[in-house]
Amino acid sequence: MAEGTLTLRNGLVVSPEGLLRGGLAATDGVITHVGADGTLPTGMNDVDVDGHVIFPGVIDPHVHIGVGDNWGPAKMQADFESESRDAAFGGITTMITTTLFGRESRVEVTEHGIRWGTERSLIDFRFNVVMIRREDLDEVPALVELGARSFKFFLGYKGPQGESFGMDPDGIPWDLFYAGCEAIRDASPAAFPMIHAEDPDVRELLIERMRQRGRTDYLQAWHEACPNITEPMQLYSAALIANEVGVPLYTVHVSAAESVELIRDLKARGFQTLGETLNAFLYYTAEEADEREIGAYAKVQPPIRGARDREALWHGILDGTIEFVGTDSQQYSIASQQGDFWDARVGLGPVMATMFPSMYTAGVLAGRCTLEDLARVCCENNARRFGLYPQKGVLRPGSDADIVVFDPDALRVARAAALPSASGYSIFEGELLGGWPQHVFLRGNQIVRDCRIVEQENIGRYVPA
Fold this sequence. Notes:
By secondary structure, this protein is of the alpha/beta class. The chain contains 14 helices and 19 strands. Strand 1 (5-15) and strand 2 form a beta hairpin. The longest helix is centred in the N-terminal third of the chain and has 17 residues, at 73-89. The radius of gyration is 21 Å and the shape is globular.
């Protein structure tokens, strides 16, 4: 655990006010000074970072610990061990993961998750509570007491796919979502629903048609089988309900240009409609992913889409329409993604170690955004929305010393074999990426040194709102 003082100097600090030449100092895991080198006290651990970038610890708001092969309690415990290290390797110091799916008490699965994470996670964590049944709504006040503020509704699933999550065959009907918004509103003004928006009826009709055509440009075919319209179809209905009830609506993994336009329009009308997207959507197009023969590894719902969608997402980040970036990371095995593309399970697999490098490469190095923009959508906005600011998400006195140091000019090829995830594969395999963290600190504890995990103790904490 953190002892004494830490000082990082001779760097480029990314702060809410912009970029600052100098460094920071922390005592017992809390930042005490941010400023020019001459203003910083000498630390017991005093590090010259050689002009590198000093960045806030990244907060991933969209993780699925415990999902994948043989998902359940044992899987969640194993994932906390391996995937928290994958996250730390990539500069993520706090992850917000879903609770276990299924029909058990939502309070019980959250309490179990808190215990397992405390025992096994290297980084700090909290939960998005998955809402499955009508009975779950009665537990919202108790979940808020546990520190939960975000409640996820999988509107995009029904039938056998929904039943695999523990849902009823008809999925999440609109009356259940309406009642859920009311329960969330009444429990806390800081609480909010999250949705996976993607009409399942149109999607399943078109998937069945597409799989009969024998296409080998798999991810472009997947994009066409899960068309752009399916996302705003549900997003708009959910936004109307949330606005009527009086709660913010958080839409996960926004993928389509039409959805960006819709969220922008809703915000202009005074709706509290919030958009999150994924680093994979900001990096790849379906055509590019097919050229790299990524196949089922990148088969996700909603899909990686086209160049128009990617640029709309980046524009949404710059104008504040898209406020958050996550990974939608799960720990899948290589074997589970082999065989027929159309039968493979959906999901991007392990993405946390490559989240920040892919964002830095597609964003800053490609000239689409600045370091300050990345700090906003990867750190500060996430901390604010999930009730963690200013403890997390920013480098300022009084905040946790969650810090990433990286060389802005260094490039490295992504190799799954070099990453800590238990999956053994990466959708970024072979990509030349910048922004790889050289040093990572969690509450002043160095957990990555010279691009290697160095902390052996599981020091992660549950951080309730």
